[in-house]
């Protein structure tokens, strides 16, 4: 599936995902800025945040329980569309997905 990463200044980078990857892994593999992903996908760092734009939110789904708690712990809030990208597993249904990197991260 093709995944596009959008930086706060509007810079866009698009990559093909491999088999059974997460959005985080695709971004880290290509050194996408603002994606430190310090814990390597263990749901322990909250430094892999992305914003899922409205048209994709239903298909991507909301955060899981622990994921939502981590986002709230890190931000003091749960912004709509905010996800930890290591918890977004890419399927064919997500081909064309766009995610935005938060200004404050990394
Ligand atoms: Fe650490 Fe996602 S990479 S929580």
From TrEMBL:
<keyword id="KW-0408">Iron</keyword>
<dbReference type="Pfam" id="PF00111">
    <property type="entry name" value="Fer2"/>
</dbReference>
<keyword id="KW-0411">Iron-sulfur</keyword>
<dbReference type="InterPro" id="IPR036010">
    <property type="entry name" value="2Fe-2S_ferredoxin-like_sf"/>
</dbReference>
<dbReference type="InterPro" id="IPR012675">
    <property type="entry name" value="Beta-grasp_dom_sf"/>
</dbReference>
<dbReference type="InterPro" id="IPR001041">
    <property type="entry name" value="2Fe-2S_ferredoxin-type"/>
</dbReference>
<dbReference type="InterPro" id="IPR001055">
    <property type="entry name" value="Adrenodoxin-like"/>
</dbReference>
<protein>
    <submittedName>
        <fullName>2Fe-2S iron-sulfur cluster-binding protein</fullName>
    </submittedName>
</protein>
<keyword id="KW-0001">2Fe-2S</keyword>
<feature type="domain" description="2Fe-2S ferredoxin-type">
    <location>
        <begin position="1"/>
        <end position="105"/>
    </location>
</feature>
<comment type="similarity">
    <text>Belongs to the adrenodoxin/putidaredoxin family.</text>
</comment>
<keyword id="KW-0479">Metal-binding</keyword>
